[in-house]
Amino acid sequence: MEILQYNPNLLTPLTQFYNRLTTDVPHCHPIKNEELAQALCGVITGKADKTEGGLDSESAFVIVDNGEILAFIHVGIGQIGDNREIDIGVIRFLGYIRGKRQAGQIALEKAEEYLKSHNVSQIWAFSSDCRYRFYHFEHACLSDTHDHVHALLGINGYRRSDGEIFLDWTNFNVIPEPSSLPVTLTVDWKHGKGQRPNCHVSAFLNDKKVGECDSVSGGEFSSHPNAQDWLHTEWLGINDDFQGQGLGKYLLQYTLHEMHKIGYRHAAISTDWENHRALLFYSNCGYKVVDWTYEYEKDL
Predict the structure, then answer these.
(1) Would you say the pTM of this structure is higher than 0.85?
(2) Percentage of the chain with pLDDT > 90?
C-alpha cells in the first residue's frame, strides 16, 4: 500500500470514493468534484475556509493499492467547541472500504503522526463544528452506518464524547393542533442555498416572544435534487415559563404545515444523544429514528 498526500490530481477518484462510502448514510447525497474541492481547499491553499468548517494546518492522506483508493483521512488543527483557546487536532473525515481494515489503520496512524508533530494534546474526530457541509445535516457527527469506522476509532483509544440522534418523517402531512396558549404566530421566509426557502416561525404572547422554530432546506447541505424536498428543523425552543402547554408541538406542526404548502415533502430533526425528553417528544410526533451519530476524542 502507498500513502499519498492529497493533491488535485486525486480529486475525481476521491470524489467517487467518498460517494461510494456514503451511499447508505442518511441525508448524504452524491457530491460533485467542486464540492469536495471546496471542503479540501485548506489542504491546497493553507488558508482555512471557515464557511466550510475549515481549520489551520490542514492535510489529507489517501491510501492506495494498485491504483485503487482504500482509505482517506482529512485532518487539521483547530480551536473548537468549548476549547477556544487550545489547539486541538481534528479529524474532519475518515473513511475506508469495509474489509480493508489495514488501510484504515495506516490512514489513522499517519494522521496521528501528523497531528502530533503540531504538539497537540488531544484529537477530536468528526466534531459537528468541523463536519463537511454535505455530510449529513447540521449537528451531525460520525454516522452509525459507518460502524467499521467507529470500531477502528474505538480500538485505537478514541472514546465517544458527544452525539446527535436523527429522526425522519417521510411524506409528512400534518394539521396543526393549537396550543392552549392564545399565541400569535409569524412566519419569516429566507432564501438560502436550497431551491425552496428556509422558514423561521415565532410565537408571541402579549407582544412577547415565547417560542421559535427554525427549519432549513436540505439544499443548504447538498446540491443534489433529492435533497430539495427535505427540510431539517435545526432549532425548536419554548421559554421555560410556557412549556408543557402544547406550544412546542403547535410550533413544530405549524412549521411543517407551512413548508409542506410550498413543496417540502420530507422532514428531519435531531437532538442530543442524551436528551431523552426531546427524543420522546419527536418520536411521538411522527418522526422515526434513522441514525445515531457520535463525536470522538482521544488524549495523546
Answers:
(1) yes
(2) 83
